[in-house]
Known about the structure:
Elements: H1 5-13, H2 25-35, E1 39-42, E2 50-55, E3 62-69, E4 90-91, E5 94-96, H3 104-120, E6 126-133, H4 144-153, E7 160-163, E8 175-177, E9 179-180, E10 182-191, E11 195-196, H5 206-219, E12 233-240, E13 248-249, E14 252-261, H6 267-285, E15 288-297, E16 300-301, H7 306-319, E17 324-326, H8 334-337, E18 343-345, E19 359-361, H9 362-380
Parallel strand pairs: 3-6, 3-7, 7-18, 8-17
Antiparallel strand pairs: 1-2, 2-6, 4-5, 5-19, 9-16, 10-14, 10-15, 11-13, 12-14
Helix pairs in contact: 1-3, 3-9, 5-6, 7-9
Amino acid sequence: MPTDPIALTADLIRCPSVTPEEGGALSLLAERLSAAGFECYRADRGGVANLFARWGPKDAARRFGFNGHTDVVPVGDAAAWSVPPFGGQRRDGQLWGRGATDMKSGVAAFAAAAIDFVTESPPEDGAVILAITGDEEGPAVDGTAALLDWMEARGESMSVCLVGEPTSRERLGDTVKIGRRGSLSAFFTATGVQGHSAYPHRARNPLPAMARLMDRLASATLDGGTEHFDPSTLAVVTIDTGNPATNVIPASCRATVNIRFNDTHSGAGLTRWLEAQAAEVAAAFDVGIETKIKLSGEAFLTPPGSLSDLVVAAVEAETGVRPELSTSGGTSDARFVKDHCPVVEFGLTGRTMHQVDEHVPEAEVVALKAIYGRILRDYFA
């Protein structure tokens, strides 16, 4: 009997796996996959649960991998939900609950497709790998990165990988991600000398310096875009002094910017530019400006080729929709996988992800399983 991706998604939703809690989700998957002949291992690290499952020999000539996550964001105000957030209710052709879209449905769809594939038409000299983390929505330090470290230490590898994140925008099948922009946050602290606002010559006000720096950064044109990427963007996300007094020049001021950058740049290059801008403004205003950088991920691209062609052909065959190849959106765990093997992303529409009353059309989950199944059959044909 074919594996039901709706029932499996509902079972996963009933596991309260808010990052970094495992909630029983990975244990459930390990049980189902083991019953289908997958070798399952836990690759936990730093209090985070991760699951590695492989059907077929580790040294197979072709090793197709799926990557995804079972952790979910918090429910927020539970009273605002019209259904239990972890109830996995089915109603009006929709499946409801936290993780229904992002991304327990995607995990259930590729797990169900993989189980049916190895049961019905096991490939010769092939392996199917599922690398599933419990830390994608959180820091992501001990999630997919830990899985890949675990794999390397044990001689496990994927030839190619498909990440099952929700990528479709308006309808299932309209978008396949072949890369992602990089993400970098810069935290600035400008320090001067506190004083009375009636005697500004006795103080060194850090606020004009910070205002000048933020204006320079926000007004800069980082690039004009590349063949596969839109122009990079810089957003000022906060400026704060914490000063409630109107007659005091504060001693310090803080601000943060976030940059989403394309393959014109690297984290190191942007860091040097930000530090140089801060140093110039600090010298001009005779204040100190400290700069701290957090790089969440570099920009990357899997050039259009055999892997994206495989996914596009399967999507079009199952849905009649020809997907667009895109690099839009935020970061995903593909930023870790890209250092291991070629990687693309394809999944559901993400209309309600992270929202109250998150839900997914059941028909989409069924269709997604069919697409993943076709990808496996075509890859090993």
